[in-house]
């Protein structure tokens, strides 16, 4: 995309965190906003914060795991705003458990949002983007779409899937010389509510490690990047048509380690995990 002012952006997961910060950043760029989230209270707050920028904002309560609902929202956004130019599939949830202990229900819940939500948003909006003069799709993966870590099997699998899906989409759009492009975003630790809203079932012998309050506290300690910084990086990435956007120094460091060590990074993580579990 070369022009933002007057264009239309649709963002999922816009009630807080990166979604909210991105909505405000795009409002400052002069874009109209179509915002969705399952959290209606937070969504209304985001719309209120965007209002002083004079942009048009519409909101919708939306569960991105529901395919028909996402397609209906996409059609409604295009009709109400006169088109769509930028789509950010940002909605996501967290889950922590070993693969052995993981419940199928939790795996399906996470995939419904973190992967299928991206698929639904991409498929629903792509026809509208192709009908516009130009367009862009941003799919939010994670640093855990670059490396895998123990206890995050479901999250790793979904975020790796988002990466593969988005990179394939980008290549297909280029092969067909479309005026639409795609960017995959890999945030490191960003100060959002994802750890507070996730599912962390208590596992035998590891009760303290799976306590939601403890997980949120430890997440806050390591999350160094603000949502506003993440949003700024995404906007820059769209403007330069980046294939991949790494958010945060931690994401850039992890990406470098993976590039240098290849599959050897796994042994490094195992050693680090053992040291962490042995620490008092």
Structural write-up:
This protein is an alpha/beta fold. The chain has helices at residues 17-28, 40-50, 67-81, 104-114, 116-131, 153-175, 212-222, 227-239, 249-261, 265-278; strands at residues 8-11, 32-37, 57-61, 86-89, 135-140, 180-187, 244-247. The protein has a 7-stranded parallel sheet with strand order 3-2-1-4-5-6-7, with helices on both faces. Strand 2, helix 2 and strand 3 (57-61) form a beta-alpha-beta unit. The radius of gyration is 19 Å and the shape is globular. Residues 204-209 have low confidence and may be disordered.
Question: Keyphrases for this structure?
Answer:
280 residues, single chain, alpha/beta, 13% strand
Summed over residues and divided by their number, the pLDDT gives a mean of 90
Low-confidence sequence ranges? 204-209
The helix fraction, in percent, is: 40-55%
Strand content: 5-15%
Order of strands across the main sheet? 3-2-1-4-5-6-7
Number of helices: 10
Distance between the termini: 51 Å
Order of helices and strands: EHEHEHEHHEHEHHEHH
The number of distinct β-strands equals 7
Overview in brief:
With 280 residues, the chain is α/β, with parallel strands linked by helices.
Set down the secondary structure blueprint:
Layout: E1 8-11, H1 17-28, E2 32-37, H2 40-50, E3 57-61, H3 67-81, E4 86-89, H4 104-114, H5 116-131, E5 135-140, H6 153-175, E6 180-187, H7 212-222, H8 227-239, E7 244-247, H9 249-261, H10 265-278
Parallel strand pairs: 1-2, 1-4, 2-3, 4-5, 5-6, 6-7
Helix pairs in contact: 1-2, 1-8, 3-5, 4-6
């Amino acid at each position: 995309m070369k022009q933002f002012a007057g264009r239309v952006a649709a963002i999922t997961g816009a009630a807080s965190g990166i979604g909210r910060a991105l909505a405000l950043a795009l409002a400052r760029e002069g874009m109209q906003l179509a915002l969705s989230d399952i959290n209606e209270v937070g969504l209304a707050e985001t719309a209120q914060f965007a209002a002083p920028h004079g942009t048009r904002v519409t909101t919708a309560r939306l569960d991105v795991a529901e395919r028909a609902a996402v397609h209906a929202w996409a059609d409604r956004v295009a009709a109400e705003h006169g088109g769509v130019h930028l789509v950010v599939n940002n909605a996501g949830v967290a889950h922590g458990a070993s693969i052995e202990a993981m419940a199928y229900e939790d795996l399906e819940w996470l995939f419904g949002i973190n992967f299928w939500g991206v698929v639904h948003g991409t498929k629903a909006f792509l026809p509208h983007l192709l009908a516009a003069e130009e367009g862009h799709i941003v799919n939010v993966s994670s640093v855990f779409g670059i490396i895998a870590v123990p206890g995050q099997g479901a999250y790793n699998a979904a975020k790796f899937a988002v990466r593969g899906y988005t990179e394939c989409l980008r290549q297909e759009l280029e092969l067909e010389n479309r005026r639409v492009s795609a960017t995959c975003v890999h945030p490191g630790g960003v100060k959002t509510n994802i750890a507070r809203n996730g599912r962390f079932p208590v596992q035998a012998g590891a009760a303290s490690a799976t306590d939601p309050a403890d997980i949120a506290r430890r997440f806050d300690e390591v999350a160094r990047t603000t949502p506003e910084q993440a949003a700024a990086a995404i906007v820059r990435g769209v403007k330069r048509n980046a294939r991949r956007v790494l958010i945060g120094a931690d994401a850039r460091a992890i990406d470098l380690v993976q590039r240098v060590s290849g599959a050897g990074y796994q042994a490094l993580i195992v050693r680090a995990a053992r040291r962490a579990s042995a620490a008092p």
